[in-house]
Fold each of these.
Amino acid sequence: MRHPQADNRTVIGLLTADAAFAEAVAATFAASSQIDLKRETGRLSGREADLDFGDTTIAIVDLDDAAEAEVVALQKLMLHARDWPPVIAVAKDFDASLARALVQAKVADFLVKPIPAVELVRACARLSKRDSGADAQIYTLLPSAGGVGVTTLAIQTAMLLMNSRGARMRPSTCLVDLDFQHGAVADYLDLEPRLDLGEVEPRPERLDRQLLEVMLSQHASGLSVVAAPHRPAEMRSFDPQVVTRLLDLVSSNFEYVVFDMPRTWFSWTDSVLLGSNHIAIVSEATVPGLRHAKQLVAAIKSRLSGGPEPRVIVNRFNQKMFSGGLTHGDLEQVLGESFATAIPNDYQLVREAIDRGVPLEEVKPGNKVTQQLKKYLLPQVAGKVASKSPLLSKLRLAPAR
Ligand SMILES: Nc1ncnc2c1ncn2[C@@H]1O[C@H](COP(=O)(O)OP(=O)(O)OP(=O)(O)O)[C@@H](O)[C@H]1O
Ligand SMILES: [Mg+2]
């Protein structure tokens, strides 16, 4: 991080005289417990001397109507302020002379009001690439229907990522079961679930690294697991703040994080998806299944423009010629660009793994399910390391309404 904060927080400085804009920016960053907003009210002219943004990661300066006094003040500031972070200038209008002035002043970015939340997040994320780099690559798997195999594939994904650099170097990896009501991760891996969100809920700030460690379950393979005990009778949803806090904490303490998502869309679902680097929708290999998956892709894309592209993993695929079922070509045709891969159907293998509470590789090393997933995942792992955006995972937007 450019200006190190003791507990890995990011502080964004905001100077504006526009109350509505200040509120919009505050709402954008409110849902993240790891981002603080340092709000200053007023115009830049006359405040150059007393404005202290030295401890912020990014400064947003609102020039509003870009009156000459404001532009001059910004130029002066950029010339003299040594300990300032990258500046994002904001204005109501844009013309060539303002553009020139801003280029000369060497601002890092420039946005014109009204600014969609996603644009602001993107601009901040881009500038914070020089950030700590301590945040995880996040893989999120979500179902297109019940029982399609999300939990099975989430476990395999986590195992593959953890072993993606060979046996000697294990990147720290955490699998988080966000299906708080019916989660099966702990069962499938024969672990005792230890997450107690109820205990944290009254005071989310209590959830720190130490408490997280208490609430982690450790699998013999080295995989860390966050899972809550079953509460089948208890239909409750948690305060999104608690969930967000958990996500922030996990993503700043592991290199890889895999989320097993529930079917229900919660108020925190958008935040999870937006903070992810990869989104996979798991579908069954049937026509209605694919149709559902396609609708979900479209829904996610329109809800979260600017987030990662969701891709569809078709699970339990039988590629038998003349069987009358869907072919690989059919999948590609129906799903187009969103088609990720087709995972073979191997009931016996998956069943045995679940019954014994072990990953698939332990039942049958080199099995086709794992191999196919690996073929899809690992090239991405190799290619995506450099393009990660640590801040993006912290910038959990308030749920879109
Ligand atoms: N590739 C596969 N081949 C054969 N069977 C599979 C495969 N993947 C999953 N299954 C089976 O499908 C069933 C559902 O799997 P899983 O629990 O992983 O799905 P899920 O989407 O998490 O379900 P839920 O909606 O209950 O959370 C399990 O019985 C599992 O054995
Ligand atoms: Mg499941």
Note: The pocket of magnesium ion (ligand 2) is lined by residues 150-151, 179, 184 (CB under 6 Å).
Amino acid sequence: MVIFIKPELILTPGEILENKGIYVEVDTGRIIDVKEYVGKSDINIFLGPNTVVIPGIINAHDHLLGSYWPRVGEGPHISWKPWDDMLKSSEVYKERSKIPNFYLYVLGAYKNLISGVTTVSDHIPHKVNQEFIDKLPVRVISEYTLAHEVSSYDLKWGDGVEIEHKRAVQNNWPFITHIEEGFDEESMKGIDYLESYGALTDHTVMIHGLALSDEDLDKISKAGAHLVTCPISNYFMFKRIARLKEWFERNINVSLGTDSPMSGGMNILEEAKYLKMAYKVKYFQDLDNRTIVYMVTKNPAKAFRIQNKVGRIEKGLFADLVVFRLKGNDPFGSVVYSWFNDIEMVFIRGIPYYGFSYYKEVFDKFSGIVDYSKAIIDGKERIIVGDLEGYVKTIWNFVGFKKHLPFLPIFIKD
Ligand SMILES: [Zn+2]
């Protein structure tokens, strides 16, 4: 089955295309062409004016196991450790612990989907997440190795930095770790430790990097290693954000992530807006919207070594797509300044996973492939893959009351 999706604009995101649509072969989930309409499609989705399609957003850092609310342990702290101690001794952590891991993953997956995210990097050991990854309504990156972070008091995920990094290189996977998330003596030696293990390479994806010095950044740039920033989480825990201008000046590949909602923001859309604002406050300069869109599409695809699958709208890649409402004539700004109701539709492998209910005719054509339900999200009627309302009610049963989760603003009638 071939579908043709035609918005007003396509953001590839390197180029802005007008008068073109996206041909998708649904059996393979891949884009077969990006061109003018020439017929030869089984389903046509003409999205009309004021719509822009971008590649499905990649959230470069989340911990789906921590998909709960509210935040705990506000800083400023000297390192992540006092925050982690406060989290684990908190009432809300006890409440969260009543929910089986799979359901926390489901909450996290829907949090991401309704903010236009189609691929998530879940920084959690394989033994925790491997049985859930295929059952979620978003893509979760499954091929990676990891460490928790690089210090003597880290949480000992995986088989140690040296072995995990070597495994990443052998398999052409990313090696993912938190780095210098804090300002104590050990945190600030993160890059030196990585180097001593031979683990600072172009396979290395490092999260936070708050204490990175100019010398560290030069080494990262030279190695072709990748950085991920989570500004809301950083500000909550440390009352500062990373030295992003210094990162960009060295042409380091930088991506944006959310962290979990127990330290970070509601979703990647809030993170994008916060990044824009915080950058201006820190540097008295504008961070352009194009850079921010790259930080959630092609940059993370490169960092996580999945650029032949997702992150761009291009023949041969998966048709993971998000349709945004186009505001004015700035497609990049339309993404950065968007909120829930600016997302018209989300597709994964060419299949609609989420959208306004006025696209019902489109969803009906896919009802033999995936199951849908209705949900009122942020006040508007939606069609969404799976039984979101059922999942939320199950969560309520586990915790014993109608838990409010602002990252999933669903209205459920009594
Ligand atoms: Zn994290």
Note: The domain at 2-56+311-370 is CATH 2.30.40.10 (Urease, subunit C; domain 1).
